[in-house]
Write a structure and sequence with these properties.
Layout lengths: L1 H24 L6 H8 L3 E5 L6 H17 L2 E4 L6 H14 L3 E4 L8 H9 L3 E5 L9 E5 L1 H16 L8 E6 L5 H14 L6 E7 L4 H14 L5 E4 L2 H14 L4 E6 L3 H8 L5 E4 L2 H17 L9 E5 L2 E3 L12 H4 L2
Parallel strand pairs: 1-2, 1-3, 3-4, 4-5, 5-11, 6-7, 6-8, 8-9, 9-10
Antiparallel strand pairs: 10-12
Helix pairs in contact: 3-11, 4-5, 6-7, 8-9
GO cellular component, one term: cell envelope
Main location: other
Organism: Rhizobium loti (Mesorhizobium loti)
Length: about 325
């Protein structure tokens, strides 16, 4: 009995001694160096719709910092609001054989064949925020169906029978073939089924243009003096929509969506918007970096695995707004 007791004590002492030695020497993380090696020297090409507005500027700032930190390169090829320019940029990138292409589509069709060609050439492709009809390795971005569903439900609450309002609402879309338009419209239509107290009096394309959105809103308000609400599809465009509402002097509930730049919070503060559904560029940038790192480490061939990272929505209103509700580009670049 005593022998067993002494033996057990010796084993415990040995374990404690071994643990102390390891604590002094430190343990080697065997995954770390192979991970860093798999990222260093790799090449990523980013083809945005344009570098002239907040979303691509924010994504690029966040991706650039991570690329610099981990030793791979990020090369930006600006499509400058032209699908032809974007297609040429993608085609050129394919000949250069980068490891990953990150692309922001103009619509669901324009880049579809080119994206397939990229994957067929062995290049992994991430689509950001605006989907193509062709599904590539990864999608990172807004849940457009969820955004449309939320906006429609808010119109039911604010303009439906229980509100005592007219039930008349308008929709100001982006381009008709843009993913943000087609998926949101589907969600709005599905959500409003059976709600006869809500009437869509106008659904028009503002084409992401502030002046065009303003003109549409002015006309719809004139034609419908008892208009209750407007669903807009992008806060930058809907600054024009909000201006038309303020000019009219009417209490019209404007709900829109965007990347959560500081101008969104300013728009809520000054009454341009009642609500902004933010798909949070900071969060999307983090998800883009994670998708890039996963694909660079993966041994799977381009196109072999498909996945999506839908960024959670943040609701920005006077009731929900806090100091960290919106982001500032200068801060992202630091």
């Amino acid at each position: 009995m005593m022998i067993a007791k002494y033996a057990a004590a010796a084993v415990v002492a040995g374990i404690l001694s071994l643990g102390a030695a390891h604590a002094q020497d430190g343990m080697v993380d065997e995954l770390r160096q192979p991970t860093l090696d798999s990222l260093a020297g790799k090449k990523v090409v980013f083809v945005p719709m344009s570098m002239s507005f907040d979303l691509p500027e924010g994504w690029a700032a966040i991706m650039q910092k991570e690329a610099k930190r981990l030793g791979y390169t990020l090369d930006i090829r600006d499509a400058n609001w032209s699908t032809d320019t974007g297609t040429r940029a993608l085609t050129q990138a394919i000949t250069e054989k980068p490891d990953v292409i990150v692309v922001q589509n103009f619509d669901v069709a324009s880049y579809a064949r080119t994206l397939k060609k990229a994957e067929d050439s062995g290049i992994k492709v991430i689509q950001v925020n605006m989907k193509s009809s062709y599904q590539t390795d990864a999608f990172v971005g807004a849940d457009w169906y969820g955004i449309g569903q939320y906006a429609a439900n808010r119109m039911i609450e604010k303009c439906g029978k229980a509100s005592g309002k007219s039930g008349k609402i308008a929709i100001i879309q982006g381009p008709a073939t843009a993913a943000a338009s087609v998926y949101q419209l589907n969600a709005i239509s599905e959500t409003l089924k059976g709600h006869d107290d809500i009437k869509i009096v106008s659904s028009q394309t503002g084409d992401w243009d502030q002046s065009k959105a303003r003109g549409i809103a002015q006309t719809v308000i004139q034609q419908n003096p008892d208009l209750c609400g407007i669903i807009g599809f992008w806060d930058v465009m809907d600054a024009g929509t909000g201006a038309a509402i303020q000019e009219s002097g009417k209490d019209i509930y404007l709900i829109t969506s965007g990347g959560g730049n500081k101008t969104a919070c300013q728009g809520v503060e000054n009454g341009t918007f009642k609500e902004v559904i933010s798909y949070d560029v900071e969060g999307q940038g983090r998800d883009l970096n994670n998708a890039i790192k996963v694909l660079l480490q993966s041994k799977e061939a381009a196109g072999a695995v498909k996945f999506a990272l839908y960024t959670p929505n943040k609701i920005i209103s006077k009731e929900t707004m806090s100091t960290n509700s919106c982001w500032d580009l200068d801060q992202l670049k630091k």
